[in-house]
Amino acid sequence: MPDLDSLQPHWSELLKALSGFGQEITAEQAQSESSLAAFRLQDREITAFRRTVGSQPANVGVEQFILAAASLRHRICQAVEELRGMQSRVPGAIPELVTREARETIRMADAYVKHFSHLSDQAVFDNDAEEARDYQILRTRLTRELSGLMVLLLQLAPEPPKGRAFSRETEPFGELAKS
């Protein structure tokens, strides 16, 4: 079960937007409705919502994880927008709090990517190729957003003195770089 507190307010925003439609929501509605368009939901994510609020038998933990990953993608996109905005207004002066939050988001997304791989492997083991494919698609979408944030954070990182490598304190990804 993901730590949903760390995904606030994105988690609440997603659930509020989805709840307005109920179980009848379609992929087309999710893509065209302004409150949901920013999340760019896939069919599998809409299915996850239906399963969590409906009476279909489902693994609620997996379904909530899928929705949490959509919230995390949204959080990543907003972090990228915020960093780009700051970069254009005041080049080289990104506050430490903002970069620290971006690094936390990167660490969380890395854990989600690994969990998607685990879910995909489990689906293959269970001989459910369609579910494995869906997990791979969702993992790939999260990885794509994550890589954009990582590249931007690297671009914003201060240049190390010539002839010296990053130390643990100056490394843009901090503890993540060790793994």
Layout of SSEs?
Blueprint: H1 10-19, H2 27-32, H3 34-37, H4 43-53, H5 60-89, H6 96-125, H7 129-156
Helix pairs in contact: 1-5, 4-5, 5-6, 5-7, 6-7
Main traits of this protein?
mainly alpha; 7 helices; 179 residues
Helix content: 55-70%
Task: Give helix and strand order, one letter per element, not per position.
Answer: HHHHHHH
- Average per-residue pLDDT, rounded, comes to 84
What gap, in angstroms, lies between the N and C termini?
A: 23 Å
Count of discrete domains: 1
**Discrete helix count:** 7
Number of strands: 0
Label the structural class: mainly alpha
Radius of gyration: 18 Å
pLDDT below 50 for ≥5 consecutive residues: which ranges?
none
Using the alpha-carbon principal axes, give the shape: globular
Quick recap:
With 179 residues, the protein is an all-alpha fold.
Could you characterize what this model shows?
By secondary structure, this protein is mainly alpha-helical. It has one domain (4-158, 166-178). Helices cover 66% and strands 0% of the residues. The protein has helices at residues 10-19, 27-32, 34-37, 43-53, 60-89, 96-125, 129-156. Helix 4 (43-53) crosses helix 5 and helix 5 (60-89) runs antiparallel to helix 6. The chain is globular, with a radius of gyration of 18 Å.
